[in-house]
Amino acid sequence: MEHSLRNQVIALAGLAQAMELVKQTARTGRNDEIGLKSSVLSIFMVDAEGILEVYGELPNLVLGLKALQRQLSEPRQVDPETARYASTLIYLEPLLSQNGDMTGIISRAIGDARGIWERSSDRLDPEIFRILAAAYQQTVSTLRPRIMVAGEQRQLSDPQNANQIRTLLLAGIRSALLWRQAGGSKWRVLFLRSRMQKIVQELLYEATRAQS
Questions:
Q1: Chain centre distance of CA 90
Q2: Per-residue pLDDT of the chain (212 residues; tens, 9 = 90+)
Q3: Cis amide leading into 94 (omega within 30)
Q4: pTM of the model
């Protein structure tokens, strides 16, 4: 993948979107359907030619771009919960990628779930989330530090919500991998924050124009 700041921002938007959806699901049991479908799609698009293809199209990332815009703005607007989830996944991703047994488990689960995705008219078939959530539990969930999702206990204890949250965390890992492959590092966020903000604004403008 080309090392470019634009690609890094798109990957971070994908990560921010998955984390925003985790929060929505954990707190209310509801979430943005377009964003959810895009995050699930990103798990399946392992052979995409370009980074935008991973998420379908740019308008699918509006939720994530807006969330990233807030995270890159004034410190008082930074959401510590989103930042904690995202930074933990960025830390865990290389540990996962270096473990052949774990990546094998995830690859097999992706194959099984993608078959359902392609055959079913319901892109949000609960069986897709069950398969991917089980793979997350067998792999990422065993690594440390473990992500502890905050929210309403009634929502967190619901099996379908739990499966969606684990699947979204797996989607977050996918975006963290794309971020690293595009040349991303925590130092780039610190030193190139203003340039990244500008790219986010440009991408949001492009997404709005594409929607109209």
A1: 11
A2: 789 999 999 999 999 999 999 999 999 999 999 999 999 999 999 999 899 999 999 999 999 999 999 999 877 778 899 999 999 999 999 999 999 999 999 999 999 999 999 998 888 999 999 999 999 999 999 999 999 999 999 999 999 999 999 999 999 999 999 999 999 987 777 788 899 999 999 999 999 898 87
A3: no
A4: 0.96
